[in-house]
Amino acid sequence: MSLRCVIIDDEPLAVNVIKNHLSQIKDLKIEASFNNAIEGLEFLREKPIDVLFLDINMPVLDGFDFLNTLEEKPAVIITTAHEEYAVKSYELEVLDYLVKPISFPRFLKAIDKVKRQQNLSQPTEKEHIFVKVDKKKMKKIYLDDILVVESLKDYIKIITASGKYIVHQTLSSFTESLPSSKFLRIHRSFTISIDKVEAVEGNSLEINGSRYVIGRSYLNEVKARILDLEE
């Protein structure tokens, strides 16, 4: 998804420099540019944006007064010819402070800050799968919730901490669809979540208070994987 950008600066040359820099970076979209803060304020009250490039010294309403009028601030990058306002700008929680003339490497560094902030503020969807638990219903199951998957010939039983689900699929094909870094086949009848293993003893292991036999042909690999993780 592209980051929506607005430029507010009364210097046409500075606006052109920012536009040119933006045109060279993917996933950035210029929504509008304004040569005074009043027009920019009206626009921002009507349309949400992600990034604001803001000059400080402008007629009628300067950049700092403009920021104080905003109830919800986007990521703000100050663009100015004056170094002396940096401390005051950071008190207003601006993300970066660029001094004109703005070089492309320095501009790119500011954009990287914006992208990192965006990634931190957006919750990531947990890894999950959808499985058909009856003829029509598709059930979302988070991978972190899976404890054990048990073979029932042409079906499998997915065991989670909150429930069990019967799915028409073979254990081999289902195991192949899971990340091998998190899941391990331990027997012709069982695939387990590695980080849910509570204990290993002889040719069995314990998950959620239940014991599962490790197949003879799987024993060396299983112990190596699990015990290495626990060291």
Task: Report on this structure.
The radius of gyration is 28 Å and the shape is elongated. It contains seven helices and 15 strands. Strand 6 and strand 7 form a beta hairpin. It has a five-stranded parallel β-sheet. 31% of the residues lie in helices and 33% in strands.
Which key phrases capture this entry?
five-stranded parallel β-sheet, 231 residues, 31% helix, elongated, alpha/beta
Main pleated-sheet profile: 5 strands, parallel
- Large-scale geometry: elongated
* Spatial strand sequence of the major β-sheet: 2-1-3-4-5
Mean pLDDT: 91
Based on secondary structure, the structural category is: alpha/beta
Estimated share of beta-strand residues: 25-35%
Low-confidence stretches: none
Gap from first CA to last CA: 41 Å
- Which value, in Å, is the CA radius of gyration? 28 Å
Number of helical stretches of at least 4 residues: 7
Helical residue percent band: 25-40%
The secondary-structure element order is EHEHEHEHEHEEEEEHEEEEEH
- Count of distinct strands: 15
Blueprint (SSEs and pairs):
Elements: E1 3-8, H1 12-23, E2 28-34, H2 37-46, E3 51-54, H3 63-69, E4 75-80, H4 86-91, E5 96-99, H5 104-121, E6 128-132, E7 138-142, E8 146-152, E9 155-160, E10 164-167, H6 171-177, E11 183-187, E12 190-193, E13 197-201, E14 204-207, E15 210-213, H7 219-230
Parallel strand pairs: 1-2, 1-3, 3-4, 4-5
Antiparallel strand pairs: 6-7, 8-9, 8-12, 9-10, 11-12, 13-14, 14-15
